[in-house]
Amino acid sequence: MTAPLTPETLVYRFTPAADPQLSPDGRHVLYTVTTTERGKAPVSQIWLANADGTSPRQLTRAEKSSGSPRWSPDGQHIAFLSSRGEGNAIFLMDAKQPGDPRELTRHRVAIGGLAWSPDSRLLAYVAPVDPENPAEEPRSSDPPPVRVTRRLDYKQDDRGYLNDVRYQLFIVDAATGERRQLTHEPVDHFWPAWAPDGRSIAVQVPSRNEMASQLELVPVGGGDPVRIGPPLGFVSTFAWSPDGSRLLFSGDETQTWQADFFIYDVSTGITRRVTQDLPVLPDGGFRTIVPPAQPVWLDERRVLFCAIAAGSSGLYELDVEQGTIQLLQDWIGGTVGLSADTARQRVAVAYSSFDRVGEIAIFDRVAGRGTIVTNLSAAVLAESPPARHEHFTFERGGLKLDAWLLFPPDFDSAKRYPVILDVHGGPNGYYGPAFNPIQQLLATHGFLVLFVNPRGSTSYGREFTTRVLRDWGGEDFLDLMAALDRVLERPYADADRQGIWGYSYGGYMTAWAIGQTGRFKAAVCGAPCYDLRSMYGTSDIGYAFGDLHWGGPPNEHADWYAARSPSTFIERVTTPTLIVHGEADERCPIGQGEQMFIALKKAGREVEFVRYPNCSHVFLRTGPPAYREDLYRRILDWFTRYLGGPN
User: Fold this and answer.
1) Tens digits of per-residue pLDDT, 18-64?
2) What is the CATH classification number for the domain harbouring 625?
3) What is the extent of the structural domain holding 557?
4) CB 3.0-4.6 Å disulfide test: which of 8, 120, 123, 556 passes with 72?
């Protein structure tokens, strides 16, 4: 019998690679490797290897993290960010003979979006600026100052209370360290991209707590910036054409959760739609976790981009004149980031799949082949093999739906197994063939784990993903139950031992499901959307997200809110339920979990409420290691207690 993937193994033993950056000549690749030790914060260090993965060596060794390595276009220097010392700083290192780095500039606050100018003289980056304390002077007061708020987007998950604090664009001279702030309007600026002539920088400018966004062209030498795109549309990825006359971006004119490609002509100010209902989803990243995979122009007509189709990542080529796309590489897994050499022969991404965790992959355009060039997870997975997997499809309501089933590594079809349905968040998220720690934890401990992309999921086109609007808990719930019923037709799936787990919108669906049916014998409800009426006014995005998904504020749609809130049906619940929630969650605020717990407890139901101090909505990815280990263990113990194991 194989050793299962334990909470301790999942949190502490993997050393994932990320953020690969190819050298301009394509011969080498930089990437970060993260290690996690018990009782300490995770630490990332920068590594350098040949493009085929050979001769890897560690470049940084400070006790604090280093990351975001970026080659200068001339190949002479490597810039990177580090939290060594007080605050955060940009450092430079000689690319030919990497040694002790030189500090270039420092902030007391976070730094991101590091980008070299085309002539390798300047670096652009973003950092949060408080208009009331632009010099970043340390402040302490008892009691804290009174907070006066006049804007809707005054707080944000994973950032807390903001008021007018926003990320601004800076440039710094690589030789002298002299820096200059280019933007001052109290809006965020992210992902700087230099124009080929170095005279302007494109940045993403989000609004409505990132429910909408535009592009902004910022003149480096001074002058008024130019805003591109409608205020209530969104921008996902973007890149300058080689001659700088055009700017390609993915997004839409309204928030539809499905991006198309557009071209902005710099001289005329005219934007042209390039694609209509793109069947894949360009990888826009997740701002607080991973950056967008920015497109790469091959010439004045063809563009490489990363996108997700049916939950799986691929590398595509776009013809900007015809609006057609061609699949070059199906990774059959999940990729993040995109880096290419100057000749556009090699492309690097970070890669994960059902049986690989945090590796670096290189695609060779000449050979037409992708290769995984690192093997950092092999030793752990040899000792504790990942779950076996099966992909299947089914039809419901005229739609073809994707589902995946994970099996224990030592699966025996003669036995009967409890089945756990894992519901993704969003609801405009997606699942696919990538390594998910909680899914692997449960499957390697003897559970069948089912996950599905019901209607509303992204990576299937605009019409599919918008089917969930004003239908929360409707047809998507029936899609999930239909997938579960198909699994339960199998003789080894025990219909008497069904469980359900989900986080965020998955938490909503968990809370909804146990109020609609008694089929589940155990539930774990993570950061639930429980009472949509109170969530509208307390979530950092409720006022914008609620208008889009729920039709408007609750006072204007009281009947709908009552009909689609899990809180309305809580008296029906009989399922033993574990609620897990971060106390600093601004997206699905802790009050949602509190309301659900009190209602179940007062009704005499079996319920526990686990709260993680100072943790945001994304703590499953970025929270303290000890909390993630605790969460994994509690989920496993809860399902083991109420569902048992194979028999």
Assistant:
1) 999 999 999 999 999 999 999 999 999 999 999 999 999 999 999 99
2) 3.40.50.1820
3) 384-643
4) 120
